[in-house]
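Hallway conversation turned thread

IA: we were arguing at lunch whether anyone had actually written out F-box protein 3 end to end. Turns out nobody had. So, for the record, here is the sequence (411 residues) and right after it the structure tokens. Reply here if something looks off.
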Amino acid sequence: MATEFRMELLPSDPLLHILSFLDFRDLVHISSTNRRLNELSKHNPLWRSLCSKHWLLTDVERVQSGRSWFNLFREYYDDLGRYIQYYSVLKRAWEQLTNFLRQRCPRMIASLKEGATEAELGSIEAQIGCRLPDDYRCSYRIHNGQMLVIPGLMGSMSLSNHYRSEVLLDVETAAGGFQQKKGMRRCLPLTFCFHTGLSQYMALEHTEGRRKFESFYPCPDQTAQDPSVIDMFITGSSFLEWFTTYVNNVVTGEYPIIRDQIFRYVHDKSCVTTTGDITVSVSTSFLPELSSVHPPHFFFTYRIRIEMASGAPPEVACQLDSRYWKITTSDGNVEEVQGPGVVGTLLASPDSPRAGGVDSAWGRQAIKRAFVCESRRVSGHDAGKSSRVCQLHDFLHAVRVHGGTLHLPQT
């Protein structure tokens, strides 16, 4: 008579190999079947990989805690288990951002706040009468925003007569700005700029044409008779997307660091022109605080960067004496820009002591463009109203550089 096969009768090594393919929930379930599997399911190496995967814990942290990997996982799960699908992504994003800031923008590190507690977040929910999304709560368990200082963590922009720097609000300050007025009901501010009063908001409910948990810049409809009609420049569909996309742009160098601040210029890699040893590249930035959907007016600044090739001989160094650009807008119109260039500074090659090239001061100018905006009509309680929105990423197009005039300095 054939002997019945029972998995728990296998030797420990193959059993542990099988268990290594299970996630933490399956390991907990299988530990309830019998005594032997209960003992094997607590094998330290099994939980080491799970602690690394879900909580980003290292061997050093485990040793410092004085606990086994199993007990350490259970401790973190008891505290942060509701966020397990978000925690590793947001924790890694925060680690990447703080490591980057420590090297490039050290002043910002001191402004970051310690994480909020579950009790504090629960108290805020009771105060505003709305549930905070779990990805937002998870991020604020790691860092509770930043102090109300300049420069702001969420990016800056500077013109000759205009400056913006957005602070990532702590949850207590954000709750103080929670909106209940018509047109902005159930909206929580994420950022704030002292100079412009500009904030990005997150919608906490499906109301007034907004989708739940999307982030946006509010923009009053200047053509509507009702001042509560608000258009939106949408910046993200969820807090997780909004924050991690921004962090990725910062740590990968997509956003330049200027004067120890993060400037939210978007660079189109196809928007580069090289003439001989001189390379010119252009990046743009959208200014929602100077823009409107109705009437259609979209304000951009552009930044032109000029540098010499690393292998260029010193004798070909030149200055930008005058400029002439042709700029093609999204509707096909061509605009011409002429004027003096940057005089008095020789262009630098990437490997020189003055590496990095020249940023043209005259390059920070407004460009008005027309764009097709999405109209969103809603039903139910909002029937008859129209919430008009512009998808921000749909019109962050870089200026196309068609030409320029470079003059050698007089000798």
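OS: looked through it. Confidence is low (pLDDT under 50) at residues 352-411.
IA: good, adding that to the notes. The radius of gyration is 27 Å.
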